[in-house]
Amino acid sequence: MGIVRLSISMSLDGYVAGPDQGLEQPLGAGGEKLHEWAVATRTFRALHGGEGGETGVDDERAAAILGGVGATIMGRNMFGPVRGPWAEPAWSGWWGDEPPYRSPVFVLTHHPRAPLTLGRTTFHFVTDGIEAALERARAAAGDADVSIGGGAATARQYLRAGLVDEVELHVAPVLLGAGERLLEDLGDGARDLEAAGIVSSPAAAHVRLARGAA
Amino acid sequence: MGIVRLSISMSLDGYVAGPDQGLEQPLGAGGEKLHEWAVATRTFRALHGGEGGETGVDDERAAAILGGVGATIMGRNMFGPVRGPWAEPAWSGWWGDEPPYRSPVFVLTHHPRAPLTLGRTTFHFVTDGIEAALERARAAAGDADVSIGGGAATARQYLRAGLVDEVELHVAPVLLGAGERLLEDLGDGARDLEAAGIVSSPAAAHVRLARGAA
After folding, report:
1. CA of A190: which chain B residue's CA is closest?
2. Which of B200, B208, B211 to mutate to test the interface with A (most CBs of A within 10 A)?
3. Is A20 helix (H, G, I), strand (E, B) or coil?
4. Does the beta-carbon distance from A173 to B209 stay under 8 Å?
5. Confidence of residue B26 (pLDDT cuts 50, 70, 90)
6. Which end of chain B is more exposed for a tag (fewer CB within 10 A), N or C?
7. Count of CB contacts below 8 A, A vs B?
């Protein structure tokens, strides 16, 4: 059985999204700065149908995000805007016809909806909570890993419940000043996550924690 | 004229001290984990009269903390425990007979006190605010830099006032879960601090920001 992993970009002041998230700016004000390190990589460009891009440490970490992942779990705010048409059958995510996941995605929501297949990715809508979603994702992933795709609230729920085996924070050297924090109110759920390696480029520090790593 | 620098160790979840700081645990619960990267270095050991220690990235960043510094400013909580005998003439800091600063230190306080010289360091007690302390520190430093030595509240005041030219965060791969945050409520004071470099070891990510670096 694979592990449960969380990989997420965070500002130096701890925000994983800027303030005022919505349809116009899904990452919040300034939130795109968190992802500059990734967008510049060859892996990211290839995933989105582009060419070129940087290789090196950032590219290796970008490749690791989806490498070995057999299923992804995300919150409804990551699938669609907080205020918007996301629950309508018309809303089909942010990613166009070929989402980068290319394995089953389980979307946590209170609104039942039939599965949605786009390219090589099928989105399943799960209405019975984080543990049920994890069970389905594990079954879908088989021996591969389950990735907690975000956003912050969903990631925090899994961390708080002690269900995440490995965390990689991609710390961008920017101060957002406001937004949504990831690493707070985790209770004991994150207590046994220990240092498991750091690599960096001028664009990001990639800090890994793992359960009982030391 | 030199610049004003802040160099401080921070947990991955943004705390620069653990909870429950006091005479018994000046860094708060778990706070010593923030400084493990530094304590292991040759520079730190040499400063505290020891031998050996690690060289490499962490040692270079440890050496940079005091290198080129002509004066240091610190808050009263960094000079002495929040609840304790610090204001008494008997309290002479945490550092013993030879504090590591070896240049003038200006301690922000509401309690006037005569200067205190220990080894090569003289502590001056400044009662008229952060700008007056900076003016005196600049005069003492001459062409060298002024270092904001901490703790969190003092560092935050200088950041908020837009008086810090360069910040280096030493991000330790640990989650403290609670304590004192540095990077919050900074208003516009930190707005023009931009990425100026990242280096890392498995023990810490050293992230630098500088005024108008880009």
Report:
1. B175
2. B200
3. coil
4. yes
5. confident
6. C
7. 85
CA–CA gap between residue B165 and residue B49 (Å, rounded) = 31
Distance from CA of A172 to the nearest CA of B (A): 9
- What is the pairing mode between strands B105-108 and B69-75? parallel
- Spatial separation of the C-alpha atoms in residues B171 and B205, rounded to whole Å: 5
CA B188 to chain A, closest CA, distance in angstroms equals 9
CA distances from B146 to B70, B143, B158 (A): 6, 9, 12
CA distances from A33 to A41, B28, B90 (A): 14, 33, 50
> How would you classify residue B185: left for phi > 0, otherwise alpha for psi between -120 and 50, otherwise beta?
left
Half-sphere exposure of B88 (CA within 13 A, CB side): 7
Distance between CA atoms of B194 and B28, rounded to whole angstroms? 30
Exposed / middle / buried, residue A60 (Cβ in 10 Å: 0-12, 13-18, 19+) = middle
Supply the pTM of this predicted model. Answer: 0.93
What six digits make up the tokens of B44?
């730190």
Instruction: Judge: B12–A186 Cβ closer than 8 Å, yes or no.
Output: no
Contact assignment for A171 to B171 by CB distance below 8 Å: yes
Tens-place pLDDT, residues B155-188 = 999 999 999 999 999 999 999 999 999 999 999 9
* Residues 6+ away with beta carbon under 8 Å from A24: none
